[in-house]
Design a protein that fits this description.
It is a single chain. By secondary structure, the chain is an alpha+beta fold. β2 and β3 form a beta hairpin. α3 packs antiparallel against α7 and α4 packs antiparallel against α6. About 4% of the residues have low confidence.
Length: 256
């Protein structure tokens, strides 16, 4: 009976894990600049909403300010300071450490740039496939000190948003966005433009893992290509430097 119960619990946990792996994670961003910049960021999984910013201010725990607690904190700091001193005494920097660092093959700027661009390409390619964007509301309020400037600003913003919509409406992440969720207003009584928006980004956990796996694979491929392209002279020089570094390290260990 107990064995059956354990099996059912394991199966239930497995189903829950798979379900959470497939269910999309929603990142909710909201901003309002009508008065001051009011920005909030939260993560929502199913019906659970976790605020990330701004965080609620927690009241200080009064137990931490009692005499026993303060003495304990002081003793802990003293122990940490002693441990740091002991570690610094044990560490004896020598020429071996420097030569070990020098023995590592250096990467030129071209390889670093190629590495960054490759990872960026994978990131945008995968995000373009997996990421979903929804706009709950996006209100742009055109306002200026002069009513004529307000009218000009409204026309400029309207034309800009039409071009922006033509650009994003054909993209896969924005397929579910409705054009009427973006609104432009002219406020002839106000003197400063403002934006009020709420955007929701959705992506599943397995899709994030897919991005990380492809990114890691690409990084390993680039590293492998770099080692293959290493010339014979560079390889011989690197091996000599590594051998010299090892011999110096053995000498240092024998001295100790």
């Amino acid at each position: 009976m107990h064995m059956k119960l354990i099996v059912w619990i394991i199966l239930a946990l497995l189903v829950l894990f798979i379900f959470l792996f497939v269910v999309p994670i929603r990142i909710i961003c909201a901003a309002d600049t009508r008065k001051n910049l009011d920005f909030s960021l939260a993560v929502k999984i199913l019906f659970v909403k976790i605020p990330l910013y701004p965080r609620k201010k927690r009241l200080p725990n009064l137990k931490n300010f009692r005499r026993k607690s303060l003495e304990k904190q002081y003793r802990k700091k003293q122990k940490d300071a002693e441990k740091k001193k002991t570690k610094l005494r044990k560490k004896k920097p020598g020429s071996a450490a420097k030569k070990t660092q020098a023995a590592k093959p250096k990467r030129n700027i071209k390889q670093i740039i190629r590495f960054i661009f490759s990872l960026t390409q994978i990131l945008f390619d995968r995000l373009g496939r997996y990421l979903r964007v929804d706009i709950a509301y996006f209100d742009i309020i055109a306002a200026a000190e002069n009513p004529a400037d307000t009218a000009l600003l409204y026309g400029w913003v309207y034309a800009l948003m039409e071009s922006f919509w033509a650009l994003i409406s054909t993209r896969k992440p924005f397929q579910h966005v409705k054009k009427n969720s973006i609104s432009i207003y002219a406020d002839f009584e106000g003197d400063k433009p403002a934006v009020r928006a709420k955007l929701i980004f959705s992506i599943a956990l397995w899709q994030l893992f897919s991005i990380f796996i492809h990114g890691g694979k690409k990084a390993l491929d680039i590293r492998g290509e770099y080692h293959q392209k290493e010339t014979k002279e560079e390889q011989v020089q690197r091996q000599k430097e590594e051998a010299a570094a090892r011999s110096e390290m053995i000498k240092e260990l024998r001295k100790n």
